[in-house]
Amino acid sequence: MAVELKETIDKRREEIMDACEKLYETKGFHSITIKDISTETSFSRPSIYNYFQTKEEIFLGILTREYLKWNEALREIIDGGKKLDADNLAKAIAKTMEDRKTLLKISAMNLYEIEDNSRLELLAEFKSAFKESVDIFEECLAKNLEGIDKKKCEQIRYAFFPYMYGIYPYVYPTDKQMEAMDQVKLSYAKTTIYNMSYDFLKLIFE
After folding, report:
1. From 132, 144, 183, 203, which residue has the greatest number of CB atoms within 10 Å?
2. What digits encode the pLDDT tens for the residues 165-194?
3. Residue by residue, what is the 3-state secondary structure of 111-160?
């Protein structure tokens, strides 16, 4: 009975997060309301509060889910059996980043506010998923890069994880940002999540 109840709760939480993520594709974080999310689901506004106390907690749930998906993709690199050289490892990890647009967007734009307005237990769940990402990322490096030690793995991780937060704003500048750059003649090269990830990883793997 308890298992069935948990499955029902998880399913309802997923539906709420799916609706919020859909809205986030076209609306800004601050524009999205619980009422908007309710309209996209089968839940009333009061019902949503049974599963999330704040809008930020919904976004934190989405971000936790995103990291868990990334962890699965990173684990596939480790379980692939074939040892990769630096170039192919950079390509493999960059490939895992391609589908993590939502992860990169939330992390770049709203992470601090989301963490600050979420319950500690939910924040701990997120940090657990994030820690797993750190561990699996370093495991990827240790398995594939010849002669790498733990200190070097940590140095690479400390370089790449903060770098990740800058990927989304660079790949997806707003029209207003582009107009401002044009006015001051600031050059901008169009790129992709994959290319930004690959180019940086290849650089720090050398």
Report:
1. 144
2. 999 999 999 999 999 999 999 999 999 999
3. HHHHHHCCCHHHHHHHHHHHHHHHHHHHHHHHHHCCCCCHHHHHHHHHHH
Q: Which domains does the chain have, with CATH numbers?
A: 1-52 (1.10.10.60), 57-205 (1.10.357.10)
Largest CA-CA distance found in the chain, in angstroms, rounded: 64
Model confidence over 29-82: pLDDT tens digits? 999 999 999 999 989 999 999 999 999 999 999 999 999 999 999 999 999 878
Rounded distance between C-alpha atoms, residue 21 and residue 26, angstroms: 9
Distance (Å, whole) CA 6 – CA 182 = 52
pLDDT for residue 1 is more than 70: no
Task: Show the tokens assigned to 41.
Answer: 């689901």
Task: Write out the two tokens for 184.
Answer: 């001051």
Distance (Å, whole) CA 63 – CA 126? 7
What are the angstrom distances between the C-alpha of 170 and each of 66, 154, 188, 197?
Answer: 20, 25, 9, 12
Say what angle helices 55-79 and 120-144 make with each other, to 10 degrees. Answer: 20
